[in-house]
Design a protein that fits this description.
This is Transferase hexapeptide (Six repeat-containing protein). By secondary structure, the chain is an alpha/beta fold. The chain has two helices and 24 strands. A seven-stranded parallel sheet has the order 1-4-7-10-15-18-21, with no helix packed on it. A six-stranded parallel sheet has the order 3-6-9-12-17-20, with no helix packed on it. The termini are far apart.
């Protein structure tokens, strides 16, 4: 007669098989549900560039005929992309939301374009970034804020920016080139090129000038670039060598 250990082993084996099947099935769903130029599904963007992919599951997406996505963009899971205040509006002949080549939008981010929002090439967003061209007004003290007509101002994010986790970009914000926005910052107004901003509301905490470099000076040394011509196999071998050193990383 089988003992209790035998039944426990069979139950554990079944659980492992079910777990593997669920994981394999979910990976298939993610691959099948991803949106690309070749497989747009129900989404009909004004343009979706070569190599661009929207991970599954997508967030809220509407107004696609007024949304342009550049080449080789990565849009994470549950990212919201909207043009217009609600679906099925006629927004005119021009695009409302433009996303440049090589942009990465982190998981759970929102880009709300009720008027024009432009994100330059090679911008990287951390998770849960919120960009909006619309904000509620509260002029009338007697009327609920949510029922008052919102104010809209265009948003422009220059090329090469890094937007940290949970940052908020408000209507009218204009970020220059290669701007760093700290996690949790709330950005409004103009931000110059090569600046680091932090806080709520965000302010410039560091800036690069050709004559003086970074001010205040950077507190950490620059990263060592990968030597030219190094192959991926050599990089993996080097990583394994570092991991084997007992004092690796301690200086």
């Amino acid at each position: 007669m089988p003992n209790r250990n035998t039944f426990s082993s069979l139950a554990a084996a079944r659980r492992r098989l079910v777990t593997r099947a669920v994981h394999a099935g979910w990976q298939w769903v993610q691959r099948s549900g991803a949106v690309t130029a070749e497989r747009p599904g129900r989404l009909r963007f004004r343009r979706i560039g070569a190599g661009t992919k929207l991970a599954f599951p997508q967030g809220t997406v509407f107004g696609e005929p007024w949304i342009e996505l550049g080449d080789h963009c990565i849009v994470g899971e549950q990212v919201t992309l909207t043009a217009g205040m609600m679906p099925d509006l006629d927004l005119g002949p021009d695009p409302i939301l433009r996303i440049g080549d090589g942009v990465v939008l982190g998981r759970g981010s929102h880009v709300i374009a009720d008027t024009t929002v432009t994100i330059g090439a090679d911008c990287y967003f951390g998770p849960y970034v919120y960009v909006t061209s619309t904000n509620h007004s509260y002029d009338d003290p007697e009327e609920p804020v949510g029922k008052q007509w919102p104010r809209m101002e265009p948003v422009e994010i220059g090329p090469g920016c890094w937007i940290g986790t949970g940052a908020v970009i408000l209507p009218g914000a204009r970020l220059g080139r290669n701007v760093v926005v700290a996690a949790g910052a709330v950005v409004r107004g103009e931000v110059p090129d090569h600046a680091v901003v932090a806080g709520a509301p965000a302010r410039v905490v560091r800036r690069w000038e050709a004559a003086t470099g970074w001010q205040p000076p950077l507190r950490t040394p620059p990263p060592v670039p990968i030597p030219a011509g190094m192959t991926s196999e050599q990089l993996l071998a080097l990583a394994e060598l570092v991991d084997e050193e007992p004092d690796a990383g301690v200086r």
